[in-house]
Design goal:
CATH architecture of the largest domain: Beta Barrel
Structural class: alpha+beta
Shape: globular
Strand content: 25-35%
Length: about 500
């Protein structure tokens, strides 16, 4: 039976060939197959309901080449030279941990700025910092971060053509971490247009350009991970979160959308390692657009103020005042003589809208007030404990930026001086009304407290597990401590809470 055997052999060969062809087709699809796949995908999307169909979603990766090529020239390298009366080892930056090392999760973004210094004696050295900036116009205005140029005695700006210019500080705002500088005698400059950060959508592609670790004009890409992030920087946090690689040296550089517009100014990262872990933060460019005219004209920012201390609306508070959701801002205290008191606001009121605009989180209210021009009258919708809604007209006053003044007292036991957390101090230090404790106003040099790592502006929450409410309860707790016994303190520093041990001092 030779013929059937040959037939079976040929059939087997064809099946093997067909199998190999199918595998090759999967690995290396032909243009015809790709076109058919695209057509099938189009039909699939057309079959989706209008609410589920994706719109304006690119089928391929965006072209970063043209953006990087045309926009890099608008990003500059900024270096500063500053002198200090302290050694780098005695850095007074907040959030230092119990071991003496900084425990602030954002410290890695600032740390490289502390490393570029010359070997001068501890009380007289020069410190060089590196950061980035973005050119705003042909006049030579450059936007960057305040922490890049803070305490600068000299500012130097280097363009992509390696030309270096002496820069001058026009204005700065520490609360938003923005600064405006200017260079003179420059050649023709390339500027990037400012976009609209309110139109950003989560998942949208963005580019970051800067000088990470001193590597000039590095381009990274990612997406917008979140909007309106509060990272504990201050009362005006509304950061854009992105996974585009942002590293030390990117400070002040632009975050750019696919239309080639600046949508943010890169300012911070969250990292435990010192490098990018996919969590970076940028100041929305709409905030910068509001502040730049003031920085040009006055060198500082004028903010609105109504004179209230607020707190978060909890579900329990919402039920008590008859709100369906825990939204708005509860008035914890009304400042005497302030605009809110004159308008009739009371402690316990819940503000649910500002000029007709509702808001979910209490942290949004200070941002809305600060952005309102001084002298303007606004309408607040308020809910009182009797569940009655009413509108209140408040005239916006100017927020006076006064330095925090700590009381000067003789050091007490362990070399510590403490004071009450007054409403004014809580406001100046961005502390909520629900925080109980005493504020450390001074730490004696060489004392037990200094050796343990206690710092000025720390808040002592507990002494040997005793809750501290005020100075009286703090002193009462100290009196219970026998001589020769160690003391355990619960400390709050910024957003961090930790224990410190004071060694027995008799």
């Amino acid at each position: 039976m030779i013929v059937p055997s040959l037939l079976l052999a040929r059939l087997a060969q064809r099946f093997v060939s067909a199998g190999l062809f199918a595998i090759l087709a999967l690995l290396f699809p032909t243009p015809t197959l790709l076109a058919q796949d695209s057509e099938n995908e189009r039909r699939k999307n057309e079959s989706l309901p209008a609410s589920a169909a994706m719109t304006n979603v690119p089928r391929t990766l965006p072209d970063f080449i043209n953006l990087a090529e045309h926009l890099s020239a608008a990003v500059v390298n900024i270096s500063i030279v500053s002198s200090s009366s302290q050694s780098p080892a005695s850095d007074s930056r907040p959030f230092r941990g119990p071991s003496g090392r900084q425990s602030d999760p954002f410290r890695e973004f600032w740390e490289p700025f502390d490393r570029f210094f010359s070997p001068f004696p501890p009380h007289s050295f020069q410190q060089k910092s590196l950061g980035s900036g973005v050119i705003l116009d042909q006049q030579g205005y450059i936007l960057t971060n305040n922490h890049v140029i803070e305490n600068a005695e000299e500012i130097w700006v280097t363009l992509t053509n390696e030309k270096e210019y002496r820069g001058s500080l026009v204005g700065a705002d520490a609360k938003t971490d923005l600064a405006l500088i200017k260079i003179e005698g420059r050649d023709s400059l390339i500027a990037i247009p400012l976009g609209d950060s309110d139109e950003l959508r989560v998942g949208e592609w963005v580019l970051a350009i800067g000088n990470p670790f001193g590597l000039d004009h590095t381009v990274t890409a990612g997406i917008v991970s979140a909007k309106g992030r509060n990272i504990g920087h201050g009362s005006y946090d509304q950061f854009i979160q992105t996974d585009a690689s942002i590293n030390p040296g990117n400070s002040g550089g632009p975050l750019i959308n696919l239309r080639g517009e600046v949508v943010g100014i890169n300012t911070a990262i969250y990292s435990r390692t010192g490098g990018n872990v996919g969590i970076g933060f940028a100041i929305p460019v709409n905030v910068a657009k509001e502040l730049v005219p003031q920085l040009k004209e006055k060198g500082k920012v004028q903010r609105g103020w109504i004179g209230v201390m607020i707190q978060k609306v909890t579900p329990e508070i919402a039920v008590a005042v008859g709100l369906p959701d825990a939204k708005g801002a509860r008035v914890a205290e009304v400042v005497k003589g302030g605009p809110a008191q004159e308008a009739g606001l009371q402690a316990g009121d819940v503000i649910v809208s500002f000029n007709g605009r509702g808001f979910g989180d209490s942290g949004e209210l200070p941002f809305l007030v600060a952005r309102t021009p001084v002298g303007e009258t606004v309408t607040l919708e308020v809910v009182r404990e009797n569940k009655r809604r009413q509108t209140v007209k408040v005239r916006i006053a100017e927020l006076k930026e006064e330095p925090v003044t700590l009381a000067a007292r003789e050091p007490e036991r362990f070399g510590l001086s403490v004071q009450e957390l007054s409403p004014s101090l809580r406001g100046d230090l961005d502390m909520g009304n629900d925080l109980n404790g005493v504020l450390v106003s001074a730490v004696e040099q060489g004392s037990v407290a200094e050796e343990a790592g206690v710092q000025q502006k720390d808040v002592i929450l507990e002494v040997n597990r005793w809750k501290i409410r005020d100075v009286a309860s703090y002193r009462a707790a100290l009196q219970k401590i026998a001589k020769g016994k160690n003391v355990l303190l619960l400390i709050q520093r910024g957003e961090n809470t930790f224990f410190l041990t004071l060694k027995a001092a008799g």
